[in-house]
Specification:
alpha/beta; 7 helices; 5 strands; 51% helix
Length: 174
């Protein structure tokens, strides 16, 4: 049974949407990288490119520390677009307590989602200009066989209930 449920995946693959629903339904402590990064960004008067780059790295380190302390008493949801080294760190820290859900799907659908949300994104995510479709495709990652793959191309209530059921049946509650 798992204690740390990680929701990760490609850009615009509904990671945060799914995590917020799981948080509401499971009532677990939840760490969402964007929420923490945005709060840190807002705490500074002036943001340089260098500081913005550091914020992303620091946010993951902070999430790791919080997850380690929380897991002593509770299971946890952890949402982030993990870099390979970050996933390795999670695997080292939590081993067989880690359930990783990878959200992906049709590139054209996700790229349109990305474009649709871009104008309303928090400034913490606007370090770079809007990605071209080619750059967006280059950013794709391949989930490992150990990850649970969730196709979010067309993600409806039935799909969400399947994810929720899977997490509930594999989550250690004590």
């Amino acid at each position: 049974m798992y204690r740390c449920v990680v929701i990760t995946g490609d850009l615009a693959a509904l990671k945060t949407t799914i995590t917020r629903r799981l948080q509401s339904d499971l009532r677990l402590p939840t760490l969402i990288k964007d929420d923490i990064k945005e709060a840190l960004y807002d705490a500074f008067d002036v943001i340089t490119d260098d500081l913005q780059a550091v914020l992303s790295s620091f946010t993951f380190d902070y999430m790791m520390a919080l997850a380690k302390s929380t897991l002593t008493s509770s299971s946890i949801l952890f949402e982030s677009n993990l870099k390979p080294d970050e996933l390795s760190r999670l695997e080292s820290a939590f081993g067989d307590q880690l359930l990783v859900i990878f959200c992906g799907g049709d590139v054209a659908v996700r790229y349109q989602r990305y474009l649709d949300r871009e104008s309303s994104r928090h400034p913490a995510h606007k370090r770079y200009k809007t990605l071209s479709e080619e750059s967006f495709q280059r950013a794709l990652r391949t989930p490992s066989p150990a990850m649970v793959y969730v196709d979010t191309t067309v993600f409806n209530e039935e799909h969400y209930q399947n994810v929720l059921g899977y997490v509930q049946s594999n989550l250690r509650t004590t």
